[in-house]
Amino acid sequence: MRVLILEDNQVLAEGLKQAMTSAGFAVDMLHDGKQGSQILQYQEYDLLLLDLGLPGIDGIDLLRQLRSANNQLPVLIISARDQLDQRIEGLELGADDYICKPFEPDEVIARARALIRRTSQRADSVLRYGDLSFNSSQRKLFRNNQPVELHRRELSVLEYLLSNADRVISKDQIADHISSFDEDINPIAIETYISRLRKKLGKQFRLKTVRGLGYLLEPADG
Ligand code: CA
To answer: Considering the entire predicted model, what is its pTM?
Structure first.
């Protein structure tokens, strides 16, 4: 899951980035509203963490821009404690949640996961597929409650596939959602992760290759 942190306090942004990266997110970070607005025009994200007081374009204006362009990206506002009016305005403009500074990175991570879950209409943090269950907060995969060892990137690819089951998704899409500015993953590499996943997860993992288009995770047996 790829997130954009838009926060001009560099120390705060860097700390959050590190915590979220350790928690398994692909994290991009920018400190200027104008740059943020530009990248949001071509890069897809699973979540935006948006500071309200930003140079370039203010957080509220950026949010207004996003929603008037009909961009439904989940937005979590990061605000100073005294910015009550702006928080309310942000929520009315279509932000999904807010958190006040100072905050614990763990709380931001929990809220980020909850928002992403809500967007994909899931009730809990576990993605299930047949006898597999992927716990997205622990970043662990289990088969009948036994842990299955997967590489960090294999887990990210699997998480994206499970979140998009019954939909054809392309290698580019997968690469895009698990890459960040710091770690650009080539779509060709996705083939390698997919083939390792198939090998490790066996026939029950019904991932179909759709020629020229990508992959389709078919419903699990039973
Ligand atoms: Ca700020």
So the answer is: 0.92
Question: Quick one: 125 exposed, middle or buried, by C-beta within 10 A (0-12, 13-18, 19+)?
Answer: middle
8 C-alpha to ligand 1 centroid (Å): 5
Q: Return d(Cα 39, Cα 47) in angstroms, integer.
A: 13
Kindly give the distance from the C-alpha atom of residue 177 to the centroid of ligand 1, in angstroms, as a whole number. Answer: 26
User: 31 CA distance to ligand 1 centroid (A)?
Assistant: 9
CA 148 to centroid of ligand 1, rounded, Å: 42
**Above 60 in pLDDT, residue 138?**
yes
Give whole-number Cα distances, 133 to 86, 112, 139, 144, 157, in Å.
40, 20, 11, 8, 14
Give, for 152, the enclosing helix (H) or strand (E): helix 152-163
Plot region of 213 (φ>0 → left; ψ -120 to 50 → alpha; else → beta): alpha
Query: How do residues 175-214 score in pLDDT, each as one tens digit?
Result: 999 999 999 999 999 999 999 999 999 999 999 999 989 9
Rounded to the nearest whole angstrom, what is the distance from the C-alpha of residue 58 to the centroid of ligand 1? 9
Contact 205, 132 (CB under 8 A): yes
Q: Could you report the per-residue pLDDT of 29-60, keeping only the tens digit for each?
A: 999 999 999 999 999 999 999 999 999 999 99
Q: Is the peptide bond before 147 cis (omega within 30 degrees of 0)?
A: no
For residue 32, how far is its CA from the centre of ligand 1 (angstroms)?
9
How much distance in Å is there from the Cα of 107 to the middle of ligand 1?
19
